Amino acid sequence: MSGKSLQTELPQDKLPAQAKIVIQNVSMGFKIKRSNSDEEKDFQALENVSLTVESGEFLTIVGPSGCGKSTLLDLLAGLTHPRSGKLFIDGKPIVKPALDRGIVLQGYGLLPWRTVQKNVEFGLEIKGTESKKRHEIAEQYIQLVGLQGFEDRYPYELSGGMKQRVSIARALAYDPEVLLMDEPFAAVDAQTRDLMQDELLRIWEHTNKTILFVTHSIEEAVGLADRVAVMSANPGTVREIIRVDLPRPRRISDVRNTADFNRICRRVRDLLENANTGGTKVTVGSAAPAGGTPRAAQTASPSEAAV
Ligand SMILES: Nc1ncnc2c1ncn2[C@@H]1O[C@H](COP(=O)(O)OP(=O)(O)OP(=O)(O)O)[C@@H](O)[C@H]1O
Ligand SMILES: [Mg+2]
């Protein structure tokens, strides 16, 4: 961790005009201890990740299991600190969790001693929202995620998908500017997933939130996003960023069967296959999009393409 660098604000002249989140050359690793020896091995989870997310952007992240997606979100949440590199929100270094970032963790992150209602109210309590208002807002989001009637249940009394929905309601309820969502719909049934995707898009369209959303579903990644960051593993890095120029406002069901949607999905799938087989670094211009214009090849920081 580079404690000193975390204290430094990003000079305003270095901050891209619309940047909400800036990730600069971030590397992260872990010490792995073998149970049968005292020896510690070093594991590099992320290497040299650089990414700028614009204010109000919906960015999705895909990549093979273990490529560091959750590690990256933990860093952005301020739950951990990088070994090297820097992360900024609004030009200020990320040092700890704060109310400007709503987090939906892969493991739900619910407070086991609180009921559904009290879990959803948690962020509002910290924000200082008065009790009656807090109750009303929580009810609204509990309804949104389809958990009315379960307000008094404790997390251990819920299914995985229900816990996931509580976690989503909690993150949305206190209205953070940034949402960090780690496979938020992975454990919910297909029908609920469709509804939640549409609802998330509707909320995003009306609130100008910046969303970073990790998923293993290519359709979900493309259907939701302005841009899809494709990661590869060993060590984890952002391999390419695909711009999704599908019309807005958008519902996934409206675009799902279009040629453009399928072409972009194919491109992401190709990149992921490449990432899984450890192929050579993908460069912009390596794809041949239907009707696309030739693009200049780049191999530096993650290349960006509209396919
Ligand atoms: N606390 C930790 N200690 C040791 N290794 C860790 C730790 N956290 C993550 N790792 C390792 O870092 C790598 C990246 O993990 P991470 O959870 O970020 O992957 P991921 O891309 O989110 O995977 P998935 O899609 O399966 O959720 C993995 O190899 C994992 O084993
Ligand atoms: Mg993960």
Your description of this structure?
By secondary structure, this protein is α/β, with parallel strands linked by helices. It has one domain: P-loop containing nucleotide triphosphate hydrolases (Rossmann fold). The chain has 9 helices and 11 strands. It has helices at 3-6, 69-77, 116-127, 131-144, 160-173, 190-207, 218-224, 252-255, 259-276, and strands at residues 19-33, 40-54, 58-62, 84-89, 92-93, 101-104, 178-182, 210-214, 227-232, 237-243, 303-306. α3 (116-127) crosses α4, α4 (131-144) packs across α5 and α7 crosses α9 (259-276). The radius of gyration is 20 Å and the shape is globular.
Topology:
Elements: H1 3-6, E1 19-33, E2 40-54, E3 58-62, H2 69-77, E4 84-89, E5 92-93, E6 101-104, H3 116-127, H4 131-144, H5 160-173, E7 178-182, H6 190-207, E8 210-214, H7 218-224, E9 227-232, E10 237-243, H8 252-255, H9 259-276, E11 303-306
Parallel strand pairs: 3-8, 3-9, 6-7, 7-8, 10-11
Antiparallel strand pairs: 1-2, 1-4, 4-5, 9-10
Bound molecules: adenosine-5'-triphosphate (ATP) and magnesium ion (MG).
